Amino acid sequence: MNPVNVQLLSPALHKQIFPVEPKRVSDLATRQEYAKEHLQLQNIWGKSTDKIPDVSLKLPLMTGADLEEHFLRIGIEQSGSYLQKAKYLAGMELPKKPKKWSRVSGWTRYDAASGKGVKVEHPMEDVLIFDVETAVAVGPQAMMATAVSNDAWYSWTSPYLFGESENPNHLIPMGRTGRERIIVGHNVGYDRARILEEYNPSHSKLGFLDTMSLHIAVSGLCSQQRPAWMSEIKRRNAGKVTQTGGSALGADAAVDGVLHSMDDVGSNSFFDVSALNSLKDVVKFHCNIDMDKSTRDILVDGELADVKDNFDQLMQYCATDVEMTHNVYKSLWPKFHENCPHPVSFAGMLQMGNSILTVNERWEEYLANSVAKHKELEDMLDVKLQELAENARALVGKDEDWQKDPWLSQLDWLVNPRQRKLKGQPKWYKDAYDTKAGKLKISTRSRIAPLLLRLKWQDHPIHYLQEHGWCFKIPIARADEAGNTKMVSMDEDYFYYKIPHKDGEKANCGNPIAKNYLHYFEEGVLSSEYDAAREALELNAKSAYWISSRERILGQYVVWDTDVKDMGLSKRPHGKNGIILPQMVTMGTVTRRAVEKTWLTASNAKANRIGSELKSMIQAPEGYKIVGADVDSEELWISSIIGDAQFGFHGATALGWMTLQGSKSEGTDLHSKTAHILGISRDKAKVFNYARIYGAGAKYATSLLMQYNQDLDLEEAKQKAANLYLSTKGEKQRSVRNPFKRAFWHGGTESYMFNALEDIALCKEPRTPILGCAITDALKPKYAGTQFLTSRINWVVQSSAVDYLHMLLVSMSHLIERYDIDARFMLSVHDEVRYLSSEKDQHRTALALQIANLWTRALFSYKLGIHNLPQAVGFFSAVDVDHVLRKEPNMHCLTPSNPTKIAEGKSYSINETISQLKQRPDASTKDNLLGPEKATLAMTLPAEAIHDEMRSLQQLLPESRMCDLDFLKAQMLHDYKPQKLESKRGGRSTEVKYSQKSKSANNDSQNMEEQVGNDEDHSLYIKYDDGTMPRSSVRVIQAKLPTTKMRQPKDDPSSLYIPAGVLDALVMPDPAPSSSQQRSFKKPVPNPTKINWISV
């Protein structure tokens, strides 16, 4: 146990991972006392904890003297020659493009000097830039491709294009040379899916580098910057603004807010250092070349004959894309390597680009079942709606009946006596009738569907108002039933209240039957009194997932073993094997998370959702198992340990302790605490916790509370959110006139964590604390000022989680190579990893995954200055060994489209895995359960070169994350007050008072980063000793923000009041001249905000 009763690894394991004891911290005893005091203040100290059984395991020897050297060595090893080839490619000059392209199917190589083409089996060189073109009229299959090396250009033509084959399903061969080769492309995951050798469980030794990913990691935009960026670029293109970011008159307010706040960041803003992700945008940004992409229209809109007729033009277009990709790569590679300097980041990115998914004939059955079931339910729903419409139509001529009906009275019952078709029918019926089909066509998206279904919200009829969207109405006499809901309209008989929208009060509900409202139906908030209507809603709910996902699912590019000669899998007499290559963007967001449209967003199977068994259709081939695990509370642990690092040991902060030792049954874990504060379920509390850690503010929490509880009014929700943020984030000491010369959070369970995250996010050059990866230029302070703090905090956590993933993948790859384990990387979905393993090596793969996780967690601790590791996080709680891909191995994945249970898999704890390996007939030696090892490159790299590289990487990050004792103490206090400071102004002594007017922990908006300094109403007062206040000294900040004046409080004319928000930008000036002179406040940033004197 450590000083705060966190159970650590057993001494035997500890010595294997932390062989070198750290220097003892001289003030450790004080830090320990402060941690106990903090935990007592948060009512955590002394809570009972459960002891976890120790693990007895001899680990593989690390390849370096310590964890840091070990990971550097295996990173270099797993980067292999790929990294050297990537560096070579950045300086490579291309040969001249051919003027004429061969129409012979397959590969043609063009002589660099003569341009003459020669047919070849595949490109010969180890470094290629590559691009594939498909034709929409044919399908996803490749029709043509070009590639270039340092020596030659290549072209590939599909045999289908010129009639040599009637089958369009042809893959592009790259050959199995046995050498490590690298292929570069823009969105290269799309091109990889057309390469023959990738459709095989054995590794092709092809490494794929994506220039789109490199661009996003270096110059990508976060989602909150994108709208402003696009508006600004449109204005620049229209010649309305200068290249330095000045805004034009009449710009919309949202964009102006961003533009104006850029004035203090120098001549360049994030607009100047970022771009969108398409090849055209990236080429323009990095190379200042305008690409003409109009030729692509032939491939999108034309027929196959058009592709043939324009073959040379299309080949030239494809080759130009290759050429431009190389230009972009040459510009990007040095920047990327500077941003992500650790070889583990490079090797991890390559691993992510080699995902593979295996399927069998069940895949086709799944597609057919889902389509058929959806059609069946769609037809049933159509019949229900038609039936309801016909029942309503029967009221034509019975005006009194439909007029007193709260739903049907909203329909247009006007009958046009002159209409020939549907004579005598009301307008609403005529509008819904499809004359060509000869029947009514009413979808759930139509305006009349909710009325025919007679929907109720909280048992009150719904009503559509043009200005407010869908509402519900309550008789005036029963208005108390609305609770605290805000009324938006009224008439003689009813009060009207808006149906809530996920985007807040100002947004209107456009369709109460839409996907976002399904949970209200399931919870009984949205209902109907008629069985037919309830059935219709149930049918709609069952189809919702399939409707939103079917296009992506049906569009999956599957290659079957019937289409290729050798897929590397045993042929099945009564079935077939298939492979899907997820078209991954390996660094698809500014946090460097991977992006993929289908598999990275796939939901888990739900009993009432057609097609939601999608993931379980990924099934291991005969003789294989899918082995994997979820990293337990990954991002929560990363956040908490960054906070703990200020003390120097695990669990020192309330958040850290709850993460490591908190108990669900005792109510001492983070999610239970939040659930108690807000009065909600533990599952719902998780949403609030992760949103807060990612930087979302109290406004978001308020909105979420009102979604979860319809009876809460706005003020009550605000108060609950404020209480949550006061308890967790704490209060913010906004003044920088304190001993620490900084703003900081204090008094909450998470104050230490948020201060540590903000330290990283707001530093001059933000980098992840483990592998030292830099933030994208668009979010760097020198270009973004104080904007986008939410995105920057989110970046610290999620980008560190990407470091975690890359370390885990590289460790696994090293162990697979070192112990000759028959397994390969399959897929990662953020905190989940899955490997395809032979059945004979399933438990060795599971143990390797446990060891890889242990090494990864340990390096996180080590790099944050904590040279030990809690037992609770050292190993995965369980590793799944399964025959299908799913969240849990005991899920049966029953859905409307899959009525048959899927057989269960198994889960093994670390001790169960050890037991399995010890029981094997061919059990390895007791010394190493992974079996005999072989020497790998990591073990033989020269020490001098490794140490030089380590020193270079260490210079990017601070030596210690521990803070001084005074600041450690200040962060724990609920009622921290800065000391009063004296200053001289105009020859008179002044007293500076810092007032914390509001105890509200956080009044920030959902876009917290756009108003740093406005989270709380903390204000500064300046009072003159002689009781006077020269009115000529009132100042105005001129930063192209709305003018904000300092003013004198009415009740105290001898004081000067500086509002919150202005205060955050200011530091008191040096000894002042007289009040009649001009002077500037100094900002703690390189470009001070300009302050002018005015007369009032």
From TrEMBL:
Top-level lineage group: Eukaryota
SUPFAM superfamilies: DNA/RNA polymerases, Ribonuclease H-like
Span of domain DNA-directed DNA polymerase family A palm: 611-841
UniProt-listed InterPro entries: DNA-dir_DNA_pol_A_CS, DNA-dir_DNA_pol_A_mt, DNA-dir_DNA_pol_A_palm_dom, DNA/RNA_pol_sf, DNApol_Exo, RNaseH-like_sf
Pfam families, per the entry: DNA_pol_A, DNApol_Exo
Gene Ontology BP, a term: mitochondrial DNA replication
Ranges of biased composition (kind: Basic and acidic residues): 978-991
Name of this protein: DNA-directed DNA polymerase
Organism listed in the record: Mortierella isabellina (Filamentous fungus)
